[in-house]
Amino acid sequence: MAGVINRVKSTNDLELKDRLVAINRVTKVTKGGRTFSFAAIVVVGNEEGIIGYGLGKAGEVTTAIAKGVEAAKKNLIRVPVHKGTIPHEQEAKFGGAKVLIRPASHGTGVKAGGAMRAVLESVGITDVLAKSKGSSNPHNLVKATIAALSELRSPFTVAQNRGVSLEKVFKG
Prior knowledge:
By secondary structure, the chain is of the alpha+beta class. 29% of the residues lie in helices and 34% in strands.
């Protein structure tokens, strides 16, 4: 069941909020001197279970951010959020970045740093414990966090697959 991704079909009716995760200034040395360009990684989400990320590159910061937002809107996924937290613990890896996300009780808050915090808040998770192991590269951290969120299974689908009631899933 790993690798099941719930893609979002249309973005027309969604109220998406964008968050800038990181900006990287890149220098190209030419015969005439140095040329600067910018790469921006952006996360968009409706804070109700839909999230996407995008990378934009341009000569101006604002243009790079706008390109990142457009790219993020093209690869949205749906994440099961249950009572403000995630249904179960999940690990994922992308490149050198490894992430661990765990459900937390109500009132805990988002215990995560940097790039992971932006992703988890954009998806609408209010209580979660998150740990970043390995690389702290924001690009890989965002991709690893979204990979972990995309592998989450909703309690309703688990109950249907097992053929039991929803209450029984949480007791066992």
